[in-house]
Specification:
Keywords: Membrane, Transmembrane, Transmembrane helix. By secondary structure, this protein is α/β, with parallel strands linked by helices. It contains 17 helices and 17 strands. The chain has two domains: about 210 residues, Glycoside hydrolase/deacetylase (TIM Barrel); about 220 residues, no CATH class. The strands form four sheets. Strands 2, 3, 4, 7, 8 and 9 form a six-stranded parallel beta sheet that branches. A six-stranded mixed beta sheet has the order 10-11-14-15-17-16. Strand 10 and strand 11 form a beta hairpin. Bound molecules: zinc ion. The site of zinc ion has 6 residues, from loops.
């Protein structure tokens, strides 16, 4: 168990949390929650609705509350006067696709189209473009949004939702749930339209009753609902204040580096719809090693290099209640990803002819259960610079960086993890379910380019090792 936890500590600290936290601090990725002392944010999805949206706007006006509406493009098209009214009354308008469909069921290009079409509708009504996007059911497929034209949109999720799309929840229960979450910084998700799948047409009626009570209570407590753009701006300001200027510069440099890295080294993703492992073919540059199957790995040989997905690891971190839970999720994901990876490798002649699966990590014993061998890096420039790099990152970013570093400095050693490609194929290609394999094949055929230029959130696992200089 100790090893497991240690493994976890390294992965989560170095590969997931640091970049994850940085990107979130600066709001580059998904926004869920703000900060502030008296401000919270009301957000309304799925509208506008001819029946309920006018009532909602009246109510907000009465309490001088500003909100953010994530409108469905087709609904906006049908009710332009309501969109105009939202705009005129000082609310922010965001996008919630053109039709209310989950992004999982759409190709990335289609999602982009949906967003742009809705943006156009909003623009034609208000004369202003939208920069905020909330995917239906909060299902984020970041691939869509990093594509050139979609990249200007900021994704906004929420910190609290209440089941207000069901009528049977009733105004009383809804009020109670909402009051529990009525705190500064919270982003409340509500719906001003009940015609989407799974909702009840008259559910907004209950929502409006509950909302009025909540607005009354908010007034009593001196809390004010503000727009999401204001909340994001305020959060960025307070975050910047908390971090010393010198660190801020370093963090920004790191972000630039990360972007360059991902643009320069086009990585492929094992499962583009739920990224966990990324890989690319490259030439091995380290010392000669005898692999498990007796084959010698030498400088210049092709290897398939692995990277973890930071976004995914970060989500494991925030969603899990304990470190053990994170570890279990990591292990399950690894088990799930190795068979499709084996299939992808089999289908790619370049990768199939590579000698080994290769990665550099701080993991010492964990990977062995998956068939990896763990090998010390030669104590050269690469090893030294990686150590320095991670040390540096940790001390800059991690709140208890220095003390943790001292505690674990003995184990803070980057090692190579290796598995012969033949072993990968033998061990995992047979186990992968046929269905899953078909899915993978389908998705890569469908969008052959989309794993390439889309992922900006790859693991830090070997970034510090590229070339032979530390990253920053
Ligand atoms: Zn929705």
């Amino acid at each position: 168990m100790d090893n497991l936890l240690l493994w976890l500590f390294y992965i989560s600290t170095f590969y997931a949390f640091i970049p994850g936290i940085i990107t979130r601090i600066f709001g580059f990725r998904v926004f869920r929650r703000g900060s502030g002392e008296h401000e919270y944010a009301l957000t309304f999805d799925d509208g506008p609705d001819a029946q309920y949206t006018p009532l909602l706007l009246d109510l907000l006006k009465r309490y001088d509350a500003k909100a953010t509406f994530f409108v469905v493009g087709s609904h906006a098209e049908k009710n332009p006067e309501l969109v105009k009214r939202m705009y005129d009354e000082g609310h922010l308008i965001g996008i919630h696709n053109y039709v209310h469909k989950t992004n999982w069921l759409m190709r990335p290009a289609t999602v982009t189209q949906q967003i742009l079409k809705t943006d156009k509708i909003i623009y034609s009504i208000t004369g202003e473009r939208s920069s905020y996007y909330r995917p239906p059911w909060g299902i984020v497929n970041l691939f869509d949004l990093k594509k050139k034209r979609g990249s200007k949109f900021k994704i906004v999720l929420w910190s609290a939702m209440f089941g207000d799309w069901k009528e049977r929840i009733g105004a009383d229960r809804l009020t109670e749930r909402m009051l529990n979450k009525l705190q500064p910084g919270e982003v409340l998700l509500l719906h001003d339209c009940g015609t989407t799948a799974g909702a009840n047409p008259d559910a907004p009626q209950q929502m409006l009753i509950a909302l009025e009570r909540v607005l009354e209570e908010a007034k009593r407590r001196g809390l004010k609902s503000i727009r999401i753009d204001e909340m994001i701006m305020a959060k960025e300001k307070t975050m910047e204040k908390k971090i010393p200027r010198s660190k801020l510069v370093i963090v920004k440099l790191w972000l630039i580096w990360e972007t360059i890295f991902h643009k320069a080294f086009r990585l492929k993703t094992v499962n583009p719809h739920d990224p966990f492992l990324h890989y690319r073919l490259r030439k091995y540059r380290g010392q000669t090693i005898e692999l498990k199957n007796g084959i010698m790995l030498q400088k210049g040989d092709q290897v398939v290099e692995l990277h973890f997905d930071n976004e995914k690891l970060f989500y494991f971190g925030v969603r899990s209640r304990s470190s053990v839970h994170i570890a279990i999720q990591m292990i399950r994901s690894m088990e799930k990803e190795l068979p499709p990876l084996a299939h992808l490798v089999m289908e790619d002649s370049g990768a199939r002819n590579a000698k080994a699966l290769y990665g550099v990590s701080m993991i010492n014993r964990g990977p062995q259960q998956f068939g990896f061998q763990v090998i010390d890096l030669k104590d050269g420039l690469v090893s030294k610079s990686t150590r320095l790099y991670l040390k540096f990152l940790l001390s800059v970013i991690h709140p208890s960086g220095h003390s943790r570093l001292k505690e674990h400095s003995q184990q803070l050693v980057p090692k190579m993890i290796l598995m012969p490609i033949d072993v990968l194929v033998e061990r995992y290609a047979e186990n992968g379910s046929h269905r899953h394999r078909q899915e993978m094949k389908h998705s890569s055929e469908d969008h052959p380019d989309h794993a390439d230029d889309s992922d900006l959130s790859l693991a830090a696992s070997t970034q510090g090792l590229e070339g032979s200089t530390p990253a920053i």
